[in-house]
Design brief:
alpha/beta; five-stranded parallel β-sheet; 48% helix; 17% strand; elongated; UROS/Hem4; 4pyrrol_syn_uPrphyn_synt_sf; lyase; uroporphyrinogen-III synthase activity
Length: 267
């Protein structure tokens, strides 16, 4: 018997929705696509000044949070003609890396991080940096898609001068999609929501706060709708919003997320 038989499963992402829909259908479920992640765009000009600053000044720490974002910065530095200088600065400085993809990229670049957070969460990275001295240190933080105020606040409170590099930026999802999903949540017309990035969680709950329905949406997730996260970072974002019952697979893959949901229903 199909474990998701008749269940309406919301896909909150905008990538690989066809593949995820097929996986849900194979388990007897009904996929519902509600993209909560607005388009992401590359704004290289937004980091030109910061990259030139890094090339021309002393940098004590580099904090890398994503592999793809780090590659993008090096590509942008190449266009500015400072890639070789930036790479040497990275090798000379203390380096902190979040997540295995970032660690693998730095290994290819022959950069050995001082601090490694394999957990992959921002809070995990903060915890690993807690014993480091940042007083009067220039710290360059590579970000991807959205700011990380908790990380920046942590560094600044410890005396760091922080330079943020954020070449990729999100555009908010359509308000009609948010409105529809919130209606489905509060009326119990869906059974689960699969979140594939933390930014989807942020956009959803920012909308609920603007509409004054945060408590109602949290209540829906705690009683009748399952919250499913693709991995630890997304699960962390859901828990930060007060959702304690989060389904998350050991392996951070979309297919594994659906299988974990099936297992939960089979209990």
């Amino acid at each position: 018997m199909d474990k998701l038989s008749g269940k309406k499963i919301v896909i909150a992402g905008s990538r690989k929705t066809e593949e995820m829909s097929l996986l849900i259908q194979k388990q007897g479920g009904i996929p519902v696509v509600r993209p909560l992640q607005g388009f992401i765009y590359l704004d290289e000009s937004a980091v030109e000044k910061e990259l030139l600053f890094c090339a021309n000044n002393q940098v004590d720490w580099f904090v890398f949070t994503t592999g793809v974002g780090t590659e993008t910065l090096l590509d942008a530095a190449e266009k500015l003609g400072v890639a070789a200088i930036l790479l040497q600065k990275m090798k000379d400085a203390n380096v902190a890396a979040r997540g295995y993809k970032t660690i693998n990229l730095l290994k290819k670049l022959e950069i050995k991080p001082t601090v490694i957070d394999e957990d992959g969460t921002i809070q995990g990275l903060i915890n690993r940096l807690d014993n480091c001295d940042f007083a009067n240190q220039t710290v360059v933080v590579q970000l991807h898609g959205e700011p990380q105020p908790a990380l920046i606040q942590f560094l600044e409170e410890r005396g760091a001068a922080v330079v943020q590099l954020l070449p990729y930026r999100h555009i908010e999802p359509e308000s009609a999609v948010l409105e529809t999903l919130c209606h489905e949540l509060t009326t119990g017309s869906i059974d689960a929501v699969c979140f594939t990035t933390a930014v989807q969680v942020r956009y959803l709950f920012e909308y609920t706060r603007r509409q004054g329905i945060s408590d109602a949406v949290r209540q829906a997730f705690s009683t009748q709708v399952k919250a499913v996260a693709v991995g630890k970072v997304t699960a962390e974002a859901l828990r930060d919003e007060g959702l304690n019952q989060v389904i998350v697979p050991e392996t951070e893959r979309m297919g594994a997320m659906i299988i974990e949901l099936v297992k939960d229903y089979s209990k």
